[in-house]
Specification:
Helix content: 25-40%
Number of helices: 6
CATH class: Alpha Beta
Shape: globular
Order of helices and strands: HEHEHEHEHEH
CATH architecture: 3-Layer(aba) Sandwich
CATH superfamily: DsrEFH-like
Structural class: alpha/beta
Radius of gyration: 24 Å
């Protein structure tokens, strides 16, 4: 029995048990020079566009910062909009969705994103070209648009916007 205890003690000193003091390591993924992404926005609530725009921010901000320092010309984002969120781009709704519109306009003017509204969906809401913000492009079909850009080598990202049930402090 004493030999068994000695063997266990020796094995315990040889086998490395992870320390609670060990930390995660930050890895700089080599993302490459050019980013081509098409976002599919189709939400059941117009207000979800605010969360979806953070998906764009989460792509653009790290790429433009050190160590990547990607130029806006090398970030090419198409945002295809065909759900209830298209009402956020109607001029007459500007006061209600001003924050979202200003964020979209910022990405458009920066040259990293184009916002494309589906004509089928726009017609469902009774909207014409004159109803939309000036940075919006209306396209014949959201589905055809998504297929087109994927065939051109763009990566498809479809944000999943969940309802937040807990605060960070509650679950930390």
């Amino acid at each position: 029995m004493a030999r068994l205890l000695l063997l266990v003690a020796l094995l315990g000193s040889v086998i490395s048990i992870p320390s609670m003091a060990a930390s995660a390591k930050f890895i700089t993924t080599p993302y490459g020079d050019e980013q081509k992404v098409v976002f599919d926005f189709y939400f059941d609530d117009p207000d979800k566009i605010n969360s979806a725009l953070y998906w764009i921010k989460a792509l653009v901000d790290p790429l433009m910062a050190a160590p990547y320092n990607t130029a806006p010309d090398d970030i090419d984002i198409k945002v295809v909009i065909h759900g209830t969120e298209l009402v956020t781009l109607a001029k007459h709704n500007f006061s209600q969705y001003q924050r979202a519109v200003e964020r979209m306009r910022y990405y458009s003017e920066l040259g990293v994103a184009e916002f494309k509204v589906c004509d089928f969906a726009a017609n469902d809401y009774g909207y014409s070209l004159d109803d939309f913000q000036d940075f919006v492009h209306v396209v014949p079909s959201a589905i055809a648009e998504l297929a087109h850009w994927q065939k051109q080598g763009y990566v498809l990202i479809t944000p999943q916007i969940q309802e937040k049930l807990f605060s960070i402090d509650e679950i930390r």
